[in-house]
């Protein structure tokens, strides 16, 4: 079993919790209140900008051309995902320039950028892979039953192109990382933060977009 597969299996409990999360099931059946999804989009756009910066740090720290090109390809994929959020924002009147990150968003972005700046290449991949693998997993699991206004979200992450990006990052993890405690902690922590992101998005008290936006 590859390291990436081992780490994914080791966090199967968190993946299952994410798939069963009311925020995620609300996306699948279309019952999620629009204001919660809009708040999520705003916070996720903030997160994705940090994710793109982490890819850029991966490019900067690459020690060989293959690694550089892999991170560059992943960065291009991240830009496409940001464009999807731009589309949501344009249709729903969300001002992505006025987002105040929630505590859950800050916890995730600070962890990610600190790891990308200070961790070794293997730890950086371990911190970034869960986001890609979890969303690909959710997309494929939800697409057979997805209905309603959020079908575009499901289709985006069920797309083979997104699966390819997740596999690219996993291959990079397998090539650059060893199964060290630091790598395992980074992967598990990222999975925990992903689940926390959904929980914060679901909270009824979360303010909606407009002025100060707390996605979660």
Descriptive report:
The chain is mostly helical. It has one domain: Up-down Bundle (Heme Oxygenase, Chain A), CATH 1.20.910.10. The C terminus is likely disordered.
Secondary-structure element series: HHHHHHHHHH
Global Rg: 16 Å
Number of domains: 1
Here the CATH topology equals Heme Oxygenase, Chain A
Residue stretches low in confidence (pLDDT < 50, at least 5 long) are 206-216
What's the helix count? 10
Major β-sheet annotation: none
What is the name of the CATH architecture?
Up-down Bundle
**How helical, in percent, are the residues?**
over 70%
Shape: globular
Distance between the termini: 35 Å
Report the CATH C-level class.
Answer: Mainly Alpha
Mean pLDDT: 88
Write the SSE topology.
Elements: H1 3-10, H2 12-19, H3 22-29, H4 34-61, H5 65-92, H6 103-118, H7 121-142, H8 151-158, H9 160-176, H10 181-202
Descriptive key words:
single chain; disordered C terminus; globular; 10 helices; Heme Oxygenase, Chain A; 216 residues; mainly alpha
Short description:
It contains ten helices and no strands. It is mainly α.
């Amino acid at each position: 079993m590859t390291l990436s597969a081992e780490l994914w299996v080791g966090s199967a409990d968190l993946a299952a919790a994410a798939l069963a999360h009311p925020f995620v099931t609300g996306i699948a059946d279309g019952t999620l209140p629009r204001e919660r999804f809009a708040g999520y989009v705003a916070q996720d756009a903030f997160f994705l900008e940090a994710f793109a910066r982490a890819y850029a740090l991966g490019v900067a720290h690459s020690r060989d051309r293959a690694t550089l090109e892999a991170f560059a390809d992943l960065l291009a994929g991240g830009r496409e995902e940001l464009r999807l959020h731009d589309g949501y924002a344009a249709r729903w009147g969300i001002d992505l320039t006025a987002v105040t990150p929630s505590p859950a968003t800050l916890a995730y972005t600070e962890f990610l950028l600190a790891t990308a700046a200070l961790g070794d290449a293997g730890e950086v991949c371990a911190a970034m892979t869960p986001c890609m693998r979890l969303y690909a997993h959710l997309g494929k699991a939800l697409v057979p039953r997805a209905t309603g206004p959020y079908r575009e979200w499901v289709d985006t992450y069920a797309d083979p192109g997104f699966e390819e990006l997740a596999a690219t990052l996993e291959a990079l993890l397998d090539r650059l990382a060893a199964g060290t405690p630091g790598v395992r902690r980074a992967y598990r922590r990222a999975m925990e933060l992903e689940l926390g992101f959904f929980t914060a998005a679901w909270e009824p008290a979360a303010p909606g977009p407009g002025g100060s936006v707390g996605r979660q």
